[in-house]
Specification:
- The protein has 12 helices and 13 strands.
- It has helices at residues 9-18, 53-56, 63-68, 103-110, 129-138, 153-159, 203-213, 220-239, 261-275, 295-316, 388-400, 404-407, and strands at residues 6-7, 41-47, 57-59, 84-85, 96-98, 114-121, 171-173, 189-190, 281-286, 324-330, 350-356, 363-365, 386-387.
- The radius of gyration is 22 Å and the shape is globular.
Amino acid sequence: MTHACALSRRALLGSLAAGGALAALPGVGRFALAGEPQERCLVVLFLRGGADGLMLVGPSAEAAYIADRPPEMRVLDSGDRKGLPLDHALDPRLDFRLHPELGPLAELYQAKQLAIIHAAGITDGTRSHFVAQDLIERGVAAEGDLAHAGSGWLTRLLGALPPRPGELVRAVCTSGSVDASLAGFGPALAAPDLNGGIGLYGGDPTRNVLAALYRTGDDPLSRSMRSAVGSLAGLDQRLRGPDGKVTPYQPENQASYDGAEAGRGLRVVAQLLKLEVGLTLAAIDMGGWDTHEGQPGRFANQAKQLGQALSAFWNDIARYHDRVTLVAVTEFGRRLRSNLSQGTDHGHAAPMLVLGGTVNGGRMYGRWPGLDADALDHGVDLAVTTDYRTVLAEIAQRRFGATPGVVFPGFTPPAPLGLLRA
């Protein structure tokens, strides 16, 4: 029997070393409780590559924006490629607009379920993809802090939450490996697809060997391994019908996921939500935002995929809107001025998106620093005015009751932005 996905090798080896890290997962005897309604779930969508925030959400009427970017690299206020206007923007005089391919996001914004935080990001000045992504996933401020960040910020958030009775899957990564945001959380599930069921690497032979090895014994390792194997078996059973075949997943409300990365990942999350397996956190990747050349066409395609994926997901999980909060973040934005290859190079600030049934949406948050030369970071980039941790800490506190300093050590958030209703 072939399994499409599995508990990651890293998670399995980590559990062997920790000898008890998997104890949070339930044993076989608790599977009957897994149908109890789960509570809140946070979905983190990482736009990897550095999305150009000035094309996602652009100030179409700002003089410096018009002067320093050619029309094909801007969000326009007129013509065939006119951007989508936003009410309650940071400065109405600047006429902030969404990229024209983000029509589904404009609808969510108008429905007051989507909020935009512009000029957000890391305060560290790095322009390295790897360092910037690691900073965000570890939940720290500066590159020097990485050596002391032994876990990811989502792992610390999970550690602040009590386990729920009957949960089978607390956290999932849909990229096929466990993200750094969940580093240190042994039971994280790596599941890029659920169409073939789920199991350990090696399928039934591996499961049978582990079951035999750890069938008895009251030591932490034996208990953990029995729990992990039993949990995967329970989840796999939920995915299969009486005939042992995986039941094809049918999205609701005419939702249609495309085959792109974000759509595939959000489909997995929707499926796990409806299985009521206790899903609390989900990490999804969407690559392809590193547009050093040929940006106009490439960015339009990315924006279209993003809008379609979020729209399909939100329609599909209509029954779960009040339980789900989704935040989209990128490691940094792009330069104000385009390069000679019709692209943009690594920048600094960018927008963050927050979607949810309890979001105070339909407005933009943060402070717009402007694009005049003296306002730019190092004279070339949109400056960061909202630390990315401010947004994430507010979600962690308001939605999950977690103490910000526990999830983001050493960080004291400023006054709340007001992103979420009680």
